[in-house]
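Researcher: I'm preparing a figure for a lab meeting and need a structural model of a single chain. I don't have an experimental structure, so a prediction will have to do for now. The sequence is pasted below. Please return the structure as tokens so I can convert it later.
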Amino acid sequence: MVSARLLTRGIRNYDRCLLCGAEEETVNHLSFLCPYARQFWALTNLPTPPSGFGCSELENFKYLFSLGRNEHLPPEVRTFFPWIVWLLWKNRNKLLFDGSLYPQDSLVRKAYENSAAWFTA
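Model: Understood. Here is the structure written out token by token.
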């Protein structure tokens, strides 16, 4: 549980997901299953698994890595999913420490920009 890991570091936290109030805040929940994350993924225009992201973090990441080999997707779409996960995490921490969130559409733009800058460098 993500919130439990924070407690081991002396950071007082909530027992539930900060974004939706779900009972357990795991990395998989935060990255894929939280309604906030699901809406964020929908804004990215990345194809999601036919039945949606599931309960297995490993399977979800395996699916995302498979998109990198999908020649039918534009290169900028195939390569930017790590920035989505990273920005979801950073946004959750912004809520935890600052009490505010970045708008999802600006985060999607930022994910594309960060990915482009990385591959340009």
